[in-house]
Design goal:
- With 141 residues, the protein is α/β, with parallel strands linked by helices.
- The chain has a single domain, classed as Ribosomal Protein S5, domain 2.
- It is 34% helix and 19% strand.
- The chain contains three helices and five strands; from the N terminus they run E-H-E-E-E-H-E-H.
- It has a five-stranded mixed sheet with strand order 1-4-5-3-2, sandwiched between helices.
- Helix 2 crosses helix 3.
- Its EC number is 3.1.26.5.
């Protein structure tokens, strides 16, 4: 099966444009970008795993609905290339897991760990995120 932006005949035609919708962020996940949102999550629940730290907080009813997620990697993770690779892997893990196990009205911040987030097998990374979410939501009800 070809990706949605690929032409049916497999050839690139002049004037063809890729789809207007971005495939980077799913509709259900809203990306955190403002520092105060990250700080609020840092003061709430946290659960560490071998490959990442997950911070989570239940938003107040007046703060809106939906699942919001942020990603961060400090310079301890490595140079810019290593940090970006770790954040890309965290974004993919969040897309795969938070749609299923994330709860509406919650903010999640995924923090990469040095030498581990970028090197850990992807299925294990997904399992780590699932474990962290189970711990956060089961103990905090």
């Amino acid at each position: 099966m070809t990706p949605p932006e690929a032409p049916v005949d497999g050839k690139n035609h002049p004037g063809d444009m890729p789809p207007a919708a971005s495939v980077c962020v799913p509709e259900t996940l809203i990306v955190l970008k403002k520092r105060p949102d990250f700080l609020k999550a840092a003061r709430a629940y946290r659960q560490g795993t071998s490959s990442m730290m997950v911070q989570a907080r239940k938003r107040a009813a007046d703060e809106g609905a939906g699942i919001r997620v942020g990603f961060t990697c400090s310079k301890k993770v490595g140079n810019a290339v290593a940090r970006n690779r770790a954040k890309r892997r965290l974004r993919e893990a969040a897309r795969a897991v938070l749609r299923v196990q994330g709860q509406d009205g919650w903010d999640y911040v995924l923090i990469g760990r040095a030498d581990v987030t970028a090197a850990r097998p992807f299925e294990t990374l997904l399992d780590d995120l699932r474990y962290a979410l189970r711990k956060i939501h089961s103990a905090r009800k």
